[in-house]
Amino acid sequence: MKVKTKDRFFVIGFLIIPIMLLVLFSYYPLAKLIQLSFTDWNGMTPSVKYIGFKNYKDIFTQKELFQTFGNNMAYVITAILQQFAGLFLAVLLNSNIKMKTTFRAILFMPYIINGVAVAFMFNYMYDYSNSPVNMVLKVLGINAVHFISPSYMTNFALSFISFWKYVGYTMVIYLAALQSIPNEVYEAARIDGAGFFGTIRYITFPNIKSMLKVSLLLSLNGALQVYFEPFLITKGGPNGRTATFISKSLELAYSYRKYGKAAAMGVILLLIIILIVLAQKVFLREEKDK
């Protein structure tokens, strides 16, 4: 009995500090965010005035605020394509091809490059006059491309930066999952006459399903919270065409001193991410053993 009590205090002693840090740096700021979303705090005055759901009403009635989610959809689509590309590369590099270690390092390299350096590199690549891509197109007799323009396609040009930077990271996640599957399982499937697509459907996919959930959640979460690329390259322009939900909320908070409305946008984004997690659990739920 004494040993069990001692073990219990030992476990509680290890858990109490992480729990305190979690409450202090996660749950308390979240509670404060929800509280501020019902105020008109300007970030300066010590007192706040509660205005109810006015901030939420303004967000849903002002199209220029909520339409930024339309810009985020370009990043969501790219994040989904990134999953397919990462899985394809992982399957390819998990096979017996030559120099696969070198290819893994090359594909993972963009992830460890500084984000600001990546943004400036692509800012040069997207420059209409000096872009190496447009120079090659001109040599081939093809008209130069406006990568940064008032068109909605600019969002896809910016989202490609995230794709280029994180597809190697996604590949590594899937590669780790694939390497955890015993080779004996694949050999047994080949003996039974299973083809390539059969092994993917009945062996590979079920065994990496849990990793697929994690990777997809991370990608979608990042796509909804993106702000880095438009902030550094386009500043949300031209005419707000590339402004994302987060960049708009940061603009409201730090440029217009509307911290209450920015907090409300943060709460809305949190609820959307929770809905995505619930939907993902429904569509990718594990089949129960009969």
Please name the defining characteristics of this protein.
single chain; 290 residues; mainly alpha; MetI-like fold; 14 helices
Give an account of the 3D structure.
The protein is an all-alpha fold and 290 residues long. It has one domain (62-283): MetI-like (MetI-like fold, Orthogonal Bundle), CATH 1.10.3720. It contains 14 helices and no strands. The chain has helices spanning 2-36, 54-61, 63-66, 68-93, 100-112, 115-125, 132-139, 153-179, 183-191, 196-207, 209-224, 228-233, 245-254, 259-283. Helix 13 (245-254) packs antiparallel against helix 14. The radius of gyration is 24 Å and the shape is globular. The chain starts with a helix and ends in a 7-residue tail after the last helix. The model has no long low-confidence stretch (mean pLDDT 87).
In short:
The chain has 290 residues and is an all-alpha fold.
CA radius of gyration is 24 Å
Content of β-strand: under 5%
What is the averaged pLDDT score?
Answer: 87
CATH-scheme architecture: Orthogonal Bundle
Lay out the secondary structure.
Blueprint: H1 2-36, H2 54-61, H3 63-66, H4 68-93, H5 100-112, H6 115-125, H7 132-139, H8 153-179, H9 183-191, H10 196-207, H11 209-224, H12 228-233, H13 245-254, H14 259-283
Helix pairs in contact: 2-14, 4-8, 4-11, 5-8, 8-11, 11-14, 13-14
